[in-house]
């Protein structure tokens, strides 16, 4: 950690002129398509890619857009197609096949039997219909959360839900694992979710910000992908920011890849994990003490500040939240907290924040408190000031283009209307917060609170998951495995033998995006390109497209079902239709696009039109200019530092203003050598995706997931880099490879999320180091019920026994 000094902070500030290379007049663009060289053009989450094919085999994939910062994920194409972990044939669990109405054996402990596609379809159809008839549509869970591959047609969940809608409805999910807490609290505070919205643009930050704060944010990793497909400009922006001479500050318990990337151009401050609210309050208190908070802004644009200030000053609970109070909790010296208050208030400061900080118990408080601090600084709505919660994700800040935008297939037939057919199409009949799935399985019919509503969990009898890796993404794997035994039927549509597939009754082999035709936009906010995703190679084994699987299943519901599902259109008919809709929209924005035939044959991406005005977008500038004419979508129309709505809910785990609440498992409660577990997102994976790939050699230690351990903590336990380590708590145990470093706060360890669970049947230890075997499965609070994975304590010790063989990527026998 850098010892922060005022000189250190301000040394670069005079070099701001260097930023002028990146202005609103210089858009970051693709390589002109004609210069892109040879190879088939396709795209994935990690951006447009060129595929080298030889003798019908995919040999290599690489970036198709010019980029300064390399993106390792773009090289994974061949591994995605040819890994031995692929599901090749439809497979059924032996004990299930023998007696589907009263299955024998146990999920996760049984053998698999190969069946034909027709047998698999028949088995699923009969049991699905029986369960649905007996228990109703609520009993069929098709929430199926996850990062299926990109594309506007081959959307696994949407296709599953389209089929389930035709079958009579299903139980679904609300929210996501990513921003579960922030997306529910922010509408109460700002009237908008903030986390998935366009940011004050990169050029505006470059031209106007003096200080940029990266609060719990690791863009060098997280910008390698986007929800649609990355436009590759986000990493470029941070590359420019490094050269800008601005004061850049990172607040992170761990020296992330981003902090390494910025080298000596960044000030790194490492608080204890889960203590950010205290640190933010220490800064806020210092502002008030020094009279540096912007009273005029608070008066005009916010409501309830007085109540929050009373809390800050200790008038509410007798605890003064000053810098020394914050220092005791965060482990950051009081004078550094005070210096931050000074620097933030005397410069144009952009508070950028990531989301790992809200994937914690009471996670709602984080972004609420950051927005509150930004309001106290009075720079919200000014160019380069305020806060931004999506600079690390999907290229937030890359200016929005004038574009022809692709629509996508919908979960409802006919895109929302069921006109033209006699099917009673119903969607989700009961949706619960996505990260509460295990609680739902454990407690059918239980009432619970969510954002002011009383809701009831469905009784789930069947699960069909397509396009998500829930055994990797969900917390407390052993608790999940127990609850997972309850439903009567579990079907998994997967490309690979993931842990979820190995715990299913029926597993269906699905194509990779390299084995089918599709299209995508890039840059979720920018719409910078429209990219063809051409089929590159033939499907492996008996893999089929999700689209075809559900079309086949729809025909079994009732004769003619296929035509209803497909609306009588083939894969290419759909793509042509989507393209022509984009072309029509583009015309209105004066964007010219070739006809579909030419576009498809040329196999070139289309770069959309740069819009100078959009490049000057400043978030909340309208509100700042005229809060009466442009009120926020909150009850008061202002920024709600105190929310009467939340007060009305009466939740002690989410009070009516930002509040420091001690977490259950954290530094303050650690005993007997317990360490705080962080589970950040990995550089060389998208969650669990590509864990099987060659890239694993870049990070695996002792052939397991690495665990970062502070040097002092390692020394106390006699652990060295390269050692096999057992990390454990009451919930489970994992085998990991030690990485001993000063780059993590003492008392904290990190195992990145996404390692495939691989439980040894003999001992129960996870042989691969799956982080969620150790995490606790609690909601952030009753307000948002978000994922709180980063809230766990663990112990570690050197592993001295015979190391068990890694089986994570080995398919079951006969598969
Ligand atoms: N401890 C901890 N846990 C976490 C997090 C954390 O920070 N810490 N982060 C959480 C977050 S933010 C998220 S978003 C989740 C991510 O959780 P997921 O989105 O479930 O994770 P992925 O590994 O991307 O899973 C995608 C799965 O879809 C499959 N797939 C890909 N394409 C297709 C397709 O076309 N069809 C079908 N049928 N399948 C396909 C892939 O093989 C893969 O198994 O994890 C959450 N879990
Ligand atoms: N390469 C890659 N890119 C991805 C993903 C991926 O899996 N791989 N996942 C995508 C998805 S679905 C999402 S939701 C986003 C996730 O984006 P984020 O949620 O922002 O990512 P994280 O890695 O969980 O956390 C970011 C940083 O917060 C730090 N951090 C953790 N705990 C604390 C804390 O208590 N205080 C502070 N100040 N910092 C803390 C971590 O060390 C890390 O450097 O990324 C997306 N991009
Ligand atoms: Mo996420």
Characteristics:
Dimethylsulfoxide Reductase, domain 2; six-stranded mixed barrel; alpha/beta; EC 1.7.2.3; 29 strands; binds ligand MGD; 16% strand; binds molybdenum atom; Rossmann fold; 4 domains; trimethylamine-N-oxide reductase (cytochrome c) activity; six-stranded mixed beta sheet; globular; Trimethylamine-N-oxide reductase; 815 residues
Please tally the β strands and state the result.
Answer: 29
Strand order of the largest sheet: 5-4-19-18-17-6
Count the domains. Answer: 4
CATH hierarchy: architecture of the largest domain: 3-Layer(aba) Sandwich
The gyration radius over C-alpha positions equals 26 Å
How many helix segments? 26
User: Main β-sheet, in a few words?
Assistant: 6 strands, mixed
Share of β-strand residues: 15-25%
Look at the structure and give the mean pLDDT: 94
Instruction: List all distinct small molecules, including ions and cofactors, that are bound in this structure.
Output: ligand MGD, molybdenum atom
Overall body shape: globular
State the CATH class of the largest domain: Alpha Beta
Task: Give start-end ranges of low-pLDDT stretches.
Answer: 11-22, 416-421
CATH names the topology of the largest domain as Rossmann fold
Question: Structural class of the helix and strand makeup?
Answer: alpha/beta
Q: Give the end-to-end Cα distance, rounded to a whole number of Å.
A: 49 Å
Residues in helices, as a percent range: 25-40%
């Amino acid at each position: 950690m850098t010892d922060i000094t005022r000189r250190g902070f301000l040394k670069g500030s005079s070099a701001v002129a260097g930023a002028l290379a990146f202005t609103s007049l210089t858009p970051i663009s693709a390589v002109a398509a004609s210069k892109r060289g040879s190879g088939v053009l396709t795209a994935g989450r990690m951006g447009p890619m060129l595929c080298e094919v030889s003798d019908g085999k995919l040999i290599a994939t690489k970036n198709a857009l010019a980029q300064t910062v390399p993106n390792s994920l773009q090289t994974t194409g061949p591994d995605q197609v040819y890994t031995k972990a692929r599901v090749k044939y439809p497979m059924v669990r032996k004990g299930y096949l023998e007696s589907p109405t009263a299955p024998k054996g146990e999920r996760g402990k049984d053998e698999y039997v190969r069946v034909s596609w027709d047998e698999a379809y028949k088995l699923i159809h009969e049991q699905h219909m029986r369960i649905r008839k007996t228990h109703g549509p609520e009993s069929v869970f098709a929430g199926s959360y996850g990062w299926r591959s990109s594309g506007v047609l081959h959307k696994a969940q949407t296709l599953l839900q389209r089929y389930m809608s035709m079958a009579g409805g299903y139980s679904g999910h609300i929210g996501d694992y990513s921003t579960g807490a922030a997306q529910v609290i922010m509408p109460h505070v700002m009237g908008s979710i903030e986390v998935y919205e366009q940011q004050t643009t990169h050029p505006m930050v470059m031209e106007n910000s003096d200080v940029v704060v990266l609060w719990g944010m690791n863009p060098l990793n997280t910008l390698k992908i986007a929800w649609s497909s990355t436009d590759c400009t986000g990493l470029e922006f941070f590359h420019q920011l490094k050269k800008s001479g601005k004061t850049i500050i990172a607040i992170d318990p761990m020296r992330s890849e981003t902090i390494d990337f910025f080298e000596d151009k960044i000030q790194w401050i490492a608080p204890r994990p889960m203590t950010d609210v205290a640190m933010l309050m220490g800064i806020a208190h210092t502002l008030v003490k020094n009279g540096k908070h912007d009273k005029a802004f608070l008066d005009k644009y916010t409501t309830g500040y007085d109540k929050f200030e009373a809390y800050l000053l200790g008038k509410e609970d007798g605890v003064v939240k000053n810098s020394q109070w914050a220092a005791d909790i965060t482990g950051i010296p009081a004078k550094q907290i005070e210096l931050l208050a000074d620097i933030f208030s005397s410069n144009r400061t952009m508070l950028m924040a990531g989301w790992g900080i809200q994937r914690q118990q009471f996670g709602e408080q984080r972004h609420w408190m950051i927005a509150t601090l930004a309001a106290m600084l009075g720079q919200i709505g000014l160019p380069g000031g305020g806060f931004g919660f999506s600079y690390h994700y999907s290229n937030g800040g890359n200016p929005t283009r004038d574009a022809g935008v692709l629509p996508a297939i919908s979960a409802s037939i006919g895109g929302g209307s069921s006109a033209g057919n006699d099917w009673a199409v119903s969607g989700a009949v009961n949706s619960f917060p996505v990260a509460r799935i295990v609680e739902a399985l454990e407690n059918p019919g239980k009432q619970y609170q969510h954002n002011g509503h009383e809701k009831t969990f469905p009784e789930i009898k069947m699960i069909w998951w397509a396009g998500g890796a829930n055994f990797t993404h969900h917390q407390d794997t052993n608790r999940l495995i127990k609850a997972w035994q309850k439903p009567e039927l579990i079907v998994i549509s997967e490309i690979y033998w993931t842990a979820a597939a190995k715990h299913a009754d029926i597993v269906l082999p699905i194509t990779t995006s390299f084995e089918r035709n599709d299209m995508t936009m890039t840059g979720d906010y920018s719409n910078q390109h429209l990219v063809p995703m051409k089929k590159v190679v033939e499907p492996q084994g008996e893999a089929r497209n999700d689209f075809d699987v559900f079309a086949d299943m729809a025909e079994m519901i009732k004769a003619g079902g296929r035509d209803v599902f497909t609306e009588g259109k083939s894969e290419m008919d759909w793509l042509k239709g989507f393209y022509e809709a984009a072309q029509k929209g583009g015309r209105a924005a004066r964007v010219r696009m070739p006809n579909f035939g030419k576009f498809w044959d040329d196999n070139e991406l289309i770069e959309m039109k740069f819009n100078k005005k959009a490049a000057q977008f400043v978030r909340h500038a309208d509100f700042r200019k005229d809060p009466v004419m442009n009120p926020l979508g909150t009850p008061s129309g202002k920024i709600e530092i105190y929310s009467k709505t939340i007060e009305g809910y009466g939740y002690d785990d989410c009070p009516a203003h930002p509040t420091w609440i001690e977490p259950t498992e954290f530094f303050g409660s650690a005993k007997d050598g317990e360490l705080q577990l962080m589970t950040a997102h990995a550089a060389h994976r998208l969650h669990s995706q590509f864990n099987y790939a060659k890239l694993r050699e870049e990070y695996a230690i002792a052939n397991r997931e690495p665990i970062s351990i502070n040097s002092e903590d390692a020394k106390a336990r006699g652990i060295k880099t390269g050692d096999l380590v057992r990390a454990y708590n009451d919930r489970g145990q994992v085998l990991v490879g030690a990485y001993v470093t000063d780059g993590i706060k003492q008392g904290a360890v990190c195992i990145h999320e996404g390692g495939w669970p691989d439980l040894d049947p003999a001992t129960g230890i996870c042989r691969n180091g799956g982080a969620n075997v150790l995490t606790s499965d609690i909601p952030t609070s009753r307000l948002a019920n978000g994922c709180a994975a980063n809230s766990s304590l663990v112990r570690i010790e050197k592993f001295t026994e015979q190391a068990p063989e890694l089986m994570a990527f080995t398919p079951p026998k006969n598969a």
